[in-house]
Write a structure and sequence with these properties.
It contains 18 helices and six strands. The protein is mostly helical. It has three domains: 62 residues, Single Sheet (Rubrerythrin, domain 2); 216 residues, Orthogonal Bundle (Citrate Synthase, domain 1); 107 residues, Cytochrome P450-Terp, domain 2 (Cytochrome p450-Terp, domain 2, Orthogonal Bundle), CATH 1.10.230.10. The structure holds carboxymethyl coenzyme *A.
Protein backbone atom coordinates (compact mmCIF):
# COMPACT_ATOMS: atom_id res chain seq x y z
CA UNK A 1 0.00 0.00 0.00
CA UNK A 2 1.28 3.47 -0.89
CA UNK A 3 1.26 6.00 1.93
CA UNK A 4 -1.63 8.42 1.59
CA UNK A 5 -0.89 12.02 0.94
CA UNK A 6 -2.89 13.57 3.77
CA UNK A 7 -5.08 16.56 2.90
CA UNK A 8 -3.41 18.27 5.87
CA UNK A 9 -0.11 20.08 5.53
CA UNK A 10 2.38 21.33 8.08
CA UNK A 11 3.56 24.91 7.98
CA UNK A 12 7.03 26.12 8.72
CA UNK A 13 7.55 29.81 9.23
CA UNK A 14 11.13 30.87 8.62
CA UNK A 15 12.70 34.15 7.53
CA UNK A 16 9.29 35.79 7.27
CA UNK A 17 8.04 33.19 4.80
CA UNK A 18 5.60 30.33 5.32
CA UNK A 19 6.44 26.97 3.77
CA UNK A 20 3.70 24.39 3.25
CA UNK A 21 5.05 20.91 3.90
CA UNK A 22 3.11 17.85 2.71
CA UNK A 23 2.05 15.33 5.37
CA UNK A 24 2.08 11.62 4.50
CA UNK A 25 0.13 9.02 6.42
CA UNK A 26 1.07 5.36 6.81
CA UNK A 27 -1.19 2.31 6.92
CA UNK A 28 -1.47 2.46 10.72
CA UNK A 29 -2.14 6.18 10.91
CA UNK A 30 1.41 7.32 11.71
CA UNK A 31 2.25 10.64 10.10
CA UNK A 32 5.34 12.26 8.69
CA UNK A 33 6.17 15.71 7.42
CA UNK A 34 7.73 15.34 3.99
CA UNK A 35 10.74 17.69 3.98
CA UNK A 36 12.29 16.44 0.75
CA UNK A 37 11.81 19.83 -0.99
CA UNK A 38 12.56 21.94 2.07
CA UNK A 39 16.21 22.65 1.29
CA UNK A 40 15.49 23.60 -2.29
CA UNK A 41 12.77 25.99 -1.23
CA UNK A 42 14.16 27.46 2.00
CA UNK A 43 17.87 26.50 2.21
CA UNK A 44 17.16 24.61 5.45
CA UNK A 45 18.04 21.02 6.25
CA UNK A 46 16.75 19.12 9.28
CA UNK A 47 19.04 18.00 12.10
CA UNK A 48 18.25 14.82 14.00
CA UNK A 49 21.36 13.22 15.50
CA UNK A 50 20.94 9.44 15.78
CA UNK A 51 17.91 9.62 13.42
CA UNK A 52 15.60 9.42 16.43
CA UNK A 53 12.76 11.15 14.59
CA UNK A 54 13.63 10.68 10.95
CA UNK A 55 11.78 8.40 8.57
CA UNK A 56 14.40 7.19 6.10
CA UNK A 57 12.04 5.24 3.84
CA UNK A 58 8.52 3.98 3.27
CA UNK A 59 8.30 0.28 4.06
CA UNK A 60 5.57 -2.37 3.96
CA UNK A 61 7.54 -5.05 5.83
CA UNK A 62 7.41 -4.56 9.59
CA UNK A 63 5.17 -2.48 11.82
CA UNK A 64 6.13 -1.52 15.37
CA UNK A 65 4.04 0.49 17.79
CA UNK A 66 6.56 1.16 20.54
CA UNK A 67 4.00 2.76 22.83
CA UNK A 68 1.73 -0.28 22.81
CA UNK A 69 4.42 -2.96 22.46
CA UNK A 70 3.17 -4.18 19.07
CA UNK A 71 5.32 -5.93 16.46
CA UNK A 72 3.93 -7.30 13.20
CA UNK A 73 5.61 -8.76 10.14
CA UNK A 74 3.58 -7.99 6.99
CA UNK A 75 0.54 -7.44 9.24
CA UNK A 76 0.85 -10.68 11.24
CA UNK A 77 1.31 -10.25 15.02
CA UNK A 78 4.63 -11.61 16.24
CA UNK A 79 2.80 -13.67 18.87
CA UNK A 80 0.85 -15.54 16.14
CA UNK A 81 3.93 -16.15 14.03
CA UNK A 82 5.83 -17.35 17.11
CA UNK A 83 3.09 -19.85 17.89
CA UNK A 84 2.16 -21.14 14.45
CA UNK A 85 4.97 -20.48 11.99
CA UNK A 86 8.50 -21.59 11.25
CA UNK A 87 11.57 -19.47 10.56
CA UNK A 88 11.76 -20.26 6.84
CA UNK A 89 8.06 -19.61 6.37
CA UNK A 90 8.55 -16.25 8.11
CA UNK A 91 11.59 -15.60 5.89
CA UNK A 92 9.40 -16.11 2.82
CA UNK A 93 6.71 -13.86 4.29
CA UNK A 94 9.21 -11.07 4.88
CA UNK A 95 10.80 -11.46 1.46
CA UNK A 96 7.67 -11.79 -0.67
CA UNK A 97 4.90 -10.17 1.37
CA UNK A 98 2.53 -13.13 1.82
CA UNK A 99 2.65 -16.45 3.62
CA UNK A 100 3.84 -19.05 1.09
CA UNK A 101 1.43 -21.56 -0.39
CA UNK A 102 2.30 -25.15 0.51
CA UNK A 103 4.01 -25.82 -2.84
CA UNK A 104 5.96 -22.55 -2.69
CA UNK A 105 7.23 -23.35 0.79
CA UNK A 106 8.18 -26.90 -0.16
CA UNK A 107 10.20 -25.66 -3.14
CA UNK A 108 11.84 -22.94 -1.04
CA UNK A 109 12.84 -25.45 1.68
CA UNK A 110 14.13 -27.88 -0.92
CA UNK A 111 16.27 -25.20 -2.56
CA UNK A 112 17.66 -23.97 0.73
CA UNK A 113 18.49 -27.53 1.71
CA UNK A 114 20.39 -28.00 -1.57
CA UNK A 115 22.67 -24.99 -0.96
CA UNK A 116 23.82 -25.53 2.63
CA UNK A 117 27.30 -26.77 1.75
CA UNK A 118 30.25 -24.42 1.35
CA UNK A 119 32.63 -24.61 -1.61
CA UNK A 120 35.71 -26.56 -0.50
CA UNK A 121 38.06 -23.71 -1.51
CA UNK A 122 35.95 -21.33 0.53
CA UNK A 123 36.23 -23.67 3.51
CA UNK A 124 39.96 -22.89 3.65
CA UNK A 125 39.08 -19.25 4.30
CA UNK A 126 38.25 -20.10 7.92
CA UNK A 127 41.68 -21.62 8.41
CA UNK A 128 43.32 -18.23 7.85
CA UNK A 129 41.45 -16.60 10.73
CA UNK A 130 43.12 -16.51 14.15
CA UNK A 131 41.52 -19.06 16.47
CA UNK A 132 41.04 -16.36 19.09
CA UNK A 133 38.97 -14.20 16.71
CA UNK A 134 35.43 -13.30 17.70
CA UNK A 135 33.05 -15.20 15.37
CA UNK A 136 31.18 -12.00 14.39
CA UNK A 137 34.00 -10.43 12.33
CA UNK A 138 34.77 -13.90 10.96
CA UNK A 139 31.11 -14.24 9.88
CA UNK A 140 31.11 -10.73 8.39
CA UNK A 141 34.32 -11.42 6.46
CA UNK A 142 33.06 -14.82 5.32
CA UNK A 143 29.77 -13.39 4.03
CA UNK A 144 31.62 -10.59 2.20
CA UNK A 145 33.87 -13.27 0.71
CA UNK A 146 30.85 -15.02 -0.83
CA UNK A 147 30.95 -12.24 -3.41
CA UNK A 148 34.30 -13.63 -4.58
CA UNK A 149 32.65 -17.01 -5.31
CA UNK A 150 29.27 -16.02 -6.70
CA UNK A 151 28.09 -13.59 -9.33
CA UNK A 152 26.52 -10.29 -8.48
CA UNK A 153 22.78 -10.46 -7.70
CA UNK A 154 21.77 -8.13 -10.51
CA UNK A 155 18.78 -9.89 -12.11
CA UNK A 156 15.57 -11.30 -10.61
CA UNK A 157 16.87 -14.83 -11.01
CA UNK A 158 20.31 -14.10 -9.56
CA UNK A 159 18.77 -12.24 -6.64
CA UNK A 160 16.64 -15.29 -5.85
CA UNK A 161 19.71 -17.53 -6.01
CA UNK A 162 21.67 -15.18 -3.75
CA UNK A 163 18.79 -15.12 -1.25
CA UNK A 164 18.68 -18.93 -1.19
CA UNK A 165 22.47 -19.15 -0.89
CA UNK A 166 22.66 -16.66 1.95
CA UNK A 167 19.89 -18.29 3.96
CA UNK A 168 21.23 -21.78 3.26
CA UNK A 169 24.88 -21.07 3.99
CA UNK A 170 24.58 -18.79 7.02
CA UNK A 171 24.24 -21.63 9.60
CA UNK A 172 27.14 -23.45 7.92
CA UNK A 173 29.30 -20.29 7.99
CA UNK A 174 28.39 -19.67 11.63
CA UNK A 175 29.29 -23.18 12.73
CA UNK A 176 32.48 -23.30 10.63
CA UNK A 177 33.61 -20.10 12.37
CA UNK A 178 32.87 -21.70 15.73
CA UNK A 179 34.45 -25.07 14.99
CA UNK A 180 37.59 -23.35 13.74
CA UNK A 181 37.84 -21.31 16.95
CA UNK A 182 37.80 -24.47 19.09
CA UNK A 183 40.07 -26.44 16.80
CA UNK A 184 37.51 -29.03 15.72
CA UNK A 185 36.83 -30.12 12.14
CA UNK A 186 33.73 -28.52 10.67
CA UNK A 187 30.67 -30.71 10.27
CA UNK A 188 29.09 -30.95 6.83
CA UNK A 189 25.40 -30.02 6.78
CA UNK A 190 22.77 -32.74 6.83
CA UNK A 191 20.00 -32.36 4.31
CA UNK A 192 17.57 -34.60 6.19
CA UNK A 193 17.33 -32.09 9.04
CA UNK A 194 15.26 -28.93 9.28
CA UNK A 195 16.96 -25.53 9.43
CA UNK A 196 17.37 -25.22 13.21
CA UNK A 197 18.19 -28.91 13.73
CA UNK A 198 20.85 -28.79 11.02
CA UNK A 199 22.46 -25.79 12.73
CA UNK A 200 22.47 -27.61 16.10
CA UNK A 201 23.95 -30.71 14.46
CA UNK A 202 26.78 -28.72 12.82
CA UNK A 203 27.37 -26.78 16.03
CA UNK A 204 27.47 -29.62 18.52
CA UNK A 205 28.12 -32.71 16.43
CA UNK A 206 31.60 -34.20 16.01
CA UNK A 207 32.83 -36.89 13.61
CA UNK A 208 33.53 -39.10 16.65
CA UNK A 209 30.02 -39.69 17.92
CA UNK A 210 26.36 -39.53 17.00
CA UNK A 211 24.64 -36.32 17.91
CA UNK A 212 20.89 -36.39 18.09
CA UNK A 213 19.00 -33.11 18.10
CA UNK A 214 16.51 -32.48 20.91
CA UNK A 215 13.28 -31.30 19.19
CA UNK A 216 12.44 -28.97 22.12
CA UNK A 217 15.75 -27.18 21.63
CA UNK A 218 15.34 -27.09 17.85
CA UNK A 219 11.89 -25.51 18.24
CA UNK A 220 13.23 -22.96 20.77
CA UNK A 221 15.99 -22.02 18.35
CA UNK A 222 13.55 -21.71 15.45
CA UNK A 223 11.40 -19.44 17.64
CA UNK A 224 14.41 -17.27 18.47
CA UNK A 225 15.14 -16.91 14.76
CA UNK A 226 11.52 -15.90 14.07
CA UNK A 227 11.60 -13.24 16.79
CA UNK A 228 14.81 -11.74 15.40
CA UNK A 229 13.81 -11.89 11.73
CA UNK A 230 13.11 -8.19 11.20
CA UNK A 231 12.75 -5.02 13.22
CA UNK A 232 12.29 -2.26 10.66
CA UNK A 233 14.86 0.55 10.44
CA UNK A 234 17.25 -0.35 13.27
CA UNK A 235 21.00 0.33 13.12
CA UNK A 236 22.03 -2.75 11.10
CA UNK A 237 19.04 -2.62 8.73
CA UNK A 238 19.63 1.07 8.07
CA UNK A 239 23.27 0.16 7.42
CA UNK A 240 22.16 -2.48 4.93
CA UNK A 241 19.92 0.03 3.17
CA UNK A 242 22.63 2.70 3.12
CA UNK A 243 25.40 0.42 1.88
CA UNK A 244 23.03 -1.30 -0.57
CA UNK A 245 21.92 2.06 -1.93
CA UNK A 246 25.33 2.48 -3.57
CA UNK A 247 24.48 -0.72 -5.52
CA UNK A 248 27.34 -2.60 -3.91
CA UNK A 249 27.20 -6.41 -3.89
CA UNK A 250 24.39 -8.02 -1.86
CA UNK A 251 26.92 -10.20 -0.01
CA UNK A 252 29.10 -7.19 0.90
CA UNK A 253 25.96 -5.29 1.90
CA UNK A 254 24.85 -8.06 4.27
CA UNK A 255 28.40 -8.18 5.68
CA UNK A 256 28.05 -4.51 6.59
CA UNK A 257 24.80 -5.32 8.41
CA UNK A 258 26.60 -8.02 10.39
CA UNK A 259 29.30 -5.52 11.37
CA UNK A 260 26.69 -3.01 12.54
CA UNK A 261 24.87 -5.69 14.51
CA UNK A 262 28.01 -6.66 16.40
CA UNK A 263 28.07 -3.56 18.64
CA UNK A 264 26.97 -3.88 22.28
CA UNK A 265 24.28 -1.23 21.89
CA UNK A 266 22.66 -3.36 19.17
CA UNK A 267 22.89 -7.14 18.66
CA UNK A 268 25.99 -7.44 20.82
CA UNK A 269 23.81 -6.67 23.85
CA UNK A 270 22.78 -10.33 24.20
CA UNK A 271 26.39 -11.29 24.96
CA UNK A 272 26.71 -8.37 27.37
CA UNK A 273 23.52 -9.42 29.19
CA UNK A 274 24.85 -12.86 30.05
CA UNK A 275 28.23 -11.40 31.07
CA UNK A 276 26.32 -9.00 33.32
CA UNK A 277 24.22 -11.80 34.86
CA UNK A 278 27.32 -13.93 35.43
CA UNK A 279 29.08 -11.01 37.07
CA UNK A 280 26.12 -10.48 39.39
CA UNK A 281 26.06 -14.21 40.17
CA UNK A 282 29.78 -14.08 41.04
CA UNK A 283 29.24 -11.05 43.25
CA UNK A 284 26.68 -13.06 45.20
CA UNK A 285 23.71 -11.95 43.18
CA UNK A 286 23.00 -8.43 44.32
CA UNK A 287 20.66 -7.15 41.62
CA UNK A 288 20.00 -4.02 43.66
CA UNK A 289 23.68 -3.09 43.85
CA UNK A 290 24.08 -3.51 40.10
CA UNK A 291 21.04 -1.35 39.41
CA UNK A 292 22.51 1.42 41.56
CA UNK A 293 25.56 1.39 39.29
CA UNK A 294 23.39 1.42 36.14
CA UNK A 295 21.51 4.45 37.48
CA UNK A 296 24.56 6.41 38.58
CA UNK A 297 25.46 9.33 36.30
CA UNK A 298 29.18 8.95 37.05
CA UNK A 299 29.18 5.26 36.08
CA UNK A 300 29.02 4.08 32.46
CA UNK A 301 27.41 0.76 33.48
CA UNK A 302 24.05 0.16 31.80
CA UNK A 303 21.45 -2.43 32.52
CA UNK A 304 22.10 -4.44 29.36
CA UNK A 305 19.03 -5.83 27.61
CA UNK A 306 16.98 -2.92 28.92
CA UNK A 307 15.72 0.11 27.06
CA UNK A 308 14.94 0.60 23.41
CA UNK A 309 14.84 3.51 21.00
CA UNK A 310 11.35 2.56 19.81
CA UNK A 311 9.69 0.48 22.54
CA UNK A 312 8.50 2.58 25.42
CA UNK A 313 6.66 -0.40 26.86
CA UNK A 314 7.45 -4.11 27.16
CA UNK A 315 9.15 -5.47 24.04
CA UNK A 316 6.72 -8.20 22.88
CA UNK A 317 9.65 -10.41 21.89
CA UNK A 318 11.02 -10.28 25.44
CA UNK A 319 7.62 -11.34 26.79
CA UNK A 320 7.63 -14.45 24.56
CA UNK A 321 11.25 -15.28 25.39
CA UNK A 322 10.73 -15.00 29.14
CA UNK A 323 8.26 -17.90 28.93
CA UNK A 324 10.48 -19.85 26.52
CA UNK A 325 13.39 -19.52 28.98
CA UNK A 326 11.45 -21.43 31.59
CA UNK A 327 10.43 -24.17 29.13
CA UNK A 328 13.97 -24.65 27.78
CA UNK A 329 15.59 -24.76 31.21
CA UNK A 330 13.01 -27.33 32.28
CA UNK A 331 13.58 -29.38 29.13
CA UNK A 332 17.38 -29.46 29.38
CA UNK A 333 17.39 -29.74 33.16
CA UNK A 334 19.80 -26.79 33.37
CA UNK A 335 20.43 -24.35 36.20
CA UNK A 336 17.90 -21.57 36.50
CA UNK A 337 20.30 -19.34 38.48
CA UNK A 338 20.82 -16.75 35.70
CA UNK A 339 17.12 -16.70 34.84
CA UNK A 340 16.32 -16.04 38.50
CA UNK A 341 18.81 -13.15 38.58
CA UNK A 342 17.35 -11.76 35.34
CA UNK A 343 13.81 -11.93 36.69
CA UNK A 344 14.88 -10.29 39.94
CA UNK A 345 16.66 -7.51 37.99
CA UNK A 346 13.53 -6.97 35.93
CA UNK A 347 11.29 -6.88 38.99
CA UNK A 348 13.47 -4.36 40.82
CA UNK A 349 14.03 -2.20 37.72
CA UNK A 350 10.34 -2.06 36.83
CA UNK A 351 9.50 -0.71 40.27
CA UNK A 352 12.36 1.81 40.30
CA UNK A 353 11.57 5.39 39.40
CA UNK A 354 14.76 5.74 37.29
CA UNK A 355 13.65 3.00 34.86
CA UNK A 356 9.92 3.73 35.11
CA UNK A 357 10.28 7.45 34.37
CA UNK A 358 12.55 6.76 31.38
CA UNK A 359 10.23 3.98 30.22
CA UNK A 360 13.01 1.39 30.11
CA UNK A 361 11.76 -2.20 29.79
CA UNK A 362 13.42 -5.52 28.92
CA UNK A 363 14.21 -5.80 25.22
CA UNK A 364 14.70 -8.93 23.08
CA UNK A 365 18.26 -9.39 24.31
CA UNK A 366 17.37 -9.59 27.99
CA UNK A 367 16.17 -13.20 27.94
CA UNK A 368 17.58 -14.55 24.66
CA UNK A 369 21.06 -15.07 26.14
CA UNK A 370 19.66 -17.17 28.99
CA UNK A 371 18.11 -19.51 26.42
CA UNK A 372 21.26 -19.67 24.31
CA UNK A 373 23.25 -20.51 27.40
CA UNK A 374 20.83 -23.21 28.49
CA UNK A 375 21.11 -24.74 25.00
CA UNK A 376 24.90 -24.72 25.32
CA UNK A 377 25.71 -21.98 22.78
CA UNK A 378 28.97 -20.27 23.79
CA UNK A 379 28.63 -16.61 24.75
CA UNK A 380 30.66 -15.24 21.84
CA UNK A 381 28.26 -16.97 19.41
CA UNK A 382 25.15 -15.20 20.74
CA UNK A 383 25.31 -12.31 18.29
CA UNK A 384 25.98 -14.73 15.44
CA UNK A 385 22.63 -16.36 16.36
CA UNK A 386 21.01 -12.93 16.07
CA UNK A 387 22.66 -12.58 12.64
CA UNK A 388 21.11 -15.83 11.41
CA UNK A 389 17.71 -14.60 12.54
CA UNK A 390 17.99 -11.10 11.10
CA UNK A 391 19.20 -12.25 7.68
CA UNK A 392 15.77 -12.48 5.94
CA UNK A 393 14.82 -9.05 7.28
CA UNK A 394 17.97 -7.44 5.91
CA UNK A 395 17.45 -9.05 2.51
CA UNK A 396 13.73 -8.16 2.41
CA UNK A 397 14.58 -4.53 3.20
CA UNK A 398 17.29 -4.55 0.53
CA UNK A 399 14.88 -5.93 -2.09
CA UNK A 400 12.19 -3.44 -1.11
CA UNK A 401 14.66 -0.56 -1.37
CA UNK A 402 15.81 -1.63 -4.84
CA UNK A 403 12.23 -1.89 -6.07
CA UNK A 404 11.16 1.46 -4.65
CA UNK A 405 10.33 3.84 -7.54
CA UNK A 406 11.80 6.64 -5.40
CA UNK A 407 15.10 4.72 -4.99
CA UNK A 408 18.24 6.84 -4.84
CA UNK A 409 21.60 6.57 -3.11
CA UNK A 410 21.47 7.32 0.64
CA UNK A 411 23.31 10.50 1.42
CA UNK A 412 22.49 12.45 4.60
CA UNK A 413 23.51 16.08 5.08
CA UNK A 414 25.31 17.68 8.01
CA UNK A 415 25.77 20.92 9.87
CA UNK A 416 29.46 21.70 9.61
CA UNK A 417 31.02 22.91 12.89
CA UNK A 418 34.75 22.94 12.01
CA UNK A 419 37.05 25.88 11.30
CA UNK A 420 36.17 28.31 8.52
CA UNK A 421 38.55 28.76 5.60
CA UNK A 422 42.08 29.58 6.76
CA UNK A 423 45.44 29.93 4.99
CA UNK A 424 47.84 27.00 4.93
CA UNK A 425 50.68 27.80 7.37
CA UNK A 426 52.97 24.96 8.53
CA UNK A 427 52.65 24.42 12.29
CA UNK A 428 56.28 25.35 13.14
CA UNK A 429 56.00 28.76 11.45
CA UNK A 430 53.09 29.83 13.60
N1 LIG B 1 20.49 1.23 31.66
C1 LIG B 1 20.52 2.42 32.33
N2 LIG B 1 20.09 3.57 31.81
C2 LIG B 1 19.61 3.56 30.55
C3 LIG B 1 19.55 2.38 29.78
C4 LIG B 1 20.02 1.19 30.39
N3 LIG B 1 19.98 0.04 29.72
N4 LIG B 1 19.04 2.66 28.57
C5 LIG B 1 18.80 3.97 28.55
N5 LIG B 1 19.13 4.52 29.76
C6 LIG B 1 18.96 5.91 30.15
C7 LIG B 1 20.01 6.82 29.55
O1 LIG B 1 21.14 6.94 30.40
C8 LIG B 1 19.26 8.10 29.39
O2 LIG B 1 19.17 8.69 30.69
P1 LIG B 1 19.20 10.33 30.83
O3 LIG B 1 17.97 10.81 30.12
O4 LIG B 1 19.22 10.58 32.27
O5 LIG B 1 20.47 10.78 30.13
C9 LIG B 1 17.83 7.65 29.02
O6 LIG B 1 17.71 6.34 29.62
C10 LIG B 1 17.58 7.57 27.52
O7 LIG B 1 18.58 6.73 26.95
P2 LIG B 1 19.22 6.95 25.52
O8 LIG B 1 20.60 6.36 25.54
O9 LIG B 1 19.08 8.37 25.12
O10 LIG B 1 18.25 6.06 24.65
P3 LIG B 1 18.54 5.59 23.16
O11 LIG B 1 17.22 5.46 22.51
O12 LIG B 1 19.55 6.46 22.49
O13 LIG B 1 19.24 4.17 23.36
C11 LIG B 1 19.53 1.88 23.72
C12 LIG B 1 18.57 2.96 23.25
C13 LIG B 1 18.92 0.51 23.38
C14 LIG B 1 20.87 1.99 22.96
C15 LIG B 1 19.75 2.03 25.25
O14 LIG B 1 18.53 1.86 25.94
C16 LIG B 1 20.80 1.03 25.76
O15 LIG B 1 21.99 1.32 25.73
N6 LIG B 1 20.37 -0.17 26.27
C17 LIG B 1 21.29 -1.18 26.70
C18 LIG B 1 21.85 -1.92 25.48
C19 LIG B 1 20.81 -2.84 24.88
O16 LIG B 1 20.13 -3.59 25.57
N7 LIG B 1 20.75 -2.84 23.53
C20 LIG B 1 19.86 -3.76 22.79
C21 LIG B 1 18.74 -3.02 22.11
S1 LIG B 1 17.42 -4.10 21.57
C22 LIG B 1 18.06 -5.14 20.39
C23 LIG B 1 18.59 -4.43 19.20
O17 LIG B 1 17.89 -3.66 18.57
O18 LIG B 1 19.74 -4.69 18.90
Amino acid sequence: MNPEKSPETAQLIYGGKTYELPVVEGAEGERAVDISRLRKESGLITLDTGYGNTGACKSAITFIDGEKGILRYRGYPIEDLAEHSTFLEVAWLLLYGELPARGELDTFLEEITQHTMLHEDYRRFFGFMPKSAHPMPVAAAAVAALSTFYREADTEDRIYRAVVRLLAKMPTIATYAYKHSIGQPPMYPRNDLDYASNFLYMMFGTPCEEYSVDPVIARALDLLLILHADHEQNCSTSTVRLVGSSLSSLYATIASGISALWGPLHGGANQKVIEMLERIALEEGSADLFLERAKSKGDTTRLMGFGHRVYKSYDPRAAILKETCKEVILAVGGSSRLLEIAMRLEEVALSDDYFVSRRLYPNVDFYSGVIYQAIGIPVNMFTVMFTMGRLPGWIAQWIEMRNDPAFRIGRPRQIYTGPQERPYVPREER
